[in-house]
Design a protein that fits this description.
Elements lengths: L2 H40 L31 H8 L10 H17 L3 H7 L6 H19 L3 H25 L4 H27 L2 H11 L8 H19 L3 H6 L30
Helix pairs in contact: 3-5, 3-6, 5-6, 5-7, 7-8, 8-9
């Protein structure tokens, strides 16, 4: 019983102090506005600044214009929280085929000899993987923009990459113990590279060059021209891939990469729209 009078007294004290602070702030703001108006009238030669817009209405975050996302029901959220995939706009089998095609474009449509020569990389499985993961990362960045379907496709792009790496290591005759250790090291390298490349593509060229120096060149590049070449290559490829149609990528997975060296790196070459049938083939 003794707490109620004390709480009411404290609450009234805080309310009085809060109302006093609000009145003081409004008085200071009014004086500042009057001073600005007097300064504008007394000095007409100065360039007029923007008028202050005052409103007592508090806007909610939901009222601000934002990018509309796909509305997902409670059941779909529950399924995806359990690790399963809810219903998608396109057939899952088509998206899997498109993911395999997109990874194939990262492997078969890249001239690795140019990268080994221009960047002074040794012709090894690890160097091949470093160049391949750079292009896989660019595909992941592009497909993450396509909502739930794009994220589902990203999962199978990465899955196809690890299966291909394991098969190549078996063909090269690497035993199971060394293959397991190598796969573990490549997994750590891959996710560290994704984090660094994401930071670099959202920042300036210096941050992107540092990410390429750590991941692609393995901290062993001493020629700044090689870093400049790769930064320019990543920027123009990302600009090119972002211009591709999202639905075509989800259904076909066709990506035609721009060459490592070209005369006009600033131009975006318009690619012909890919064709596909009902079965996704």
């Amino acid at each position: 019983m003794y707490r109620r009078p004390l709480q009411s007294a404290v609450r009234s004290l805080f309310n009085a102090s809060a109302s006093r602070k609000v009145l003081d702030q409004e008085a200071c703001l009014a004086r500042a506005l009057v001073a600005c108006q007097l300064a504008r009238v007394s000095s007409p030669c100065l360039t007029p600044c923007r008028t202050l817009h005052m409103t007592a209405q508090l806007y909610n975050v939901k009222e601000t214009p934002q990018h509309t996302e796909e509305e997902v029901g409670a059941f779909t959220k529950l399924i995806e929280a359990m690790g399963f995939t809810g219903p998608l706009k396109y057939n899952k089998w088509k998206i899997k085929i498109a993911a395999l095609r997109m990874y194939t474009c990262c492997v078969e449509r890249i001239n690795y000899d140019d990268f080994f020569e221009k960047c002074c990389l040794p012709d090894t499985l690890n160097s091949w993987f470093l160049v391949a993961q750079l292009h896989v990362w660019m595909c992941l960045v592009r497909m993450r923009q396509e909502g739930r379907e794009g994220k589902y496709m990203c999962r199978y792009i990465v899955h196809s990459m690890w299966e291909d790496v394991e098969q190549r290591s078996k063909i090269m005759g690497i035993d199971a113990i060394h293959r397991k250790e190598g796969m573990k090291a490549m997994t750590e390298t891959f996710y560290a590279a994704i984090f660094g490349y994401d930071e670099g593509i959202l920042s300036d060229d210096c941050v992107l060059a540092a990410a390429l120096w750590r991941n692609l060149f393995n901290c062993q590049c001493e020629d700044p021209k090689q870093l400049e070449l790769m930064v320019e290559y990543v920027r123009k490829q990302m600009q090119y891939v972002d211009a591709l149609n999202g639905e075509d990528l989800l259904l076909t997975g066709e990506v035609k990469w721009r060459p490592l060296l070209e005369e006009n790196a600033q131009s975006i070459l318009k690619v012909a729209t890919p064709t596909y049938n009902d079965t996704g083939l």
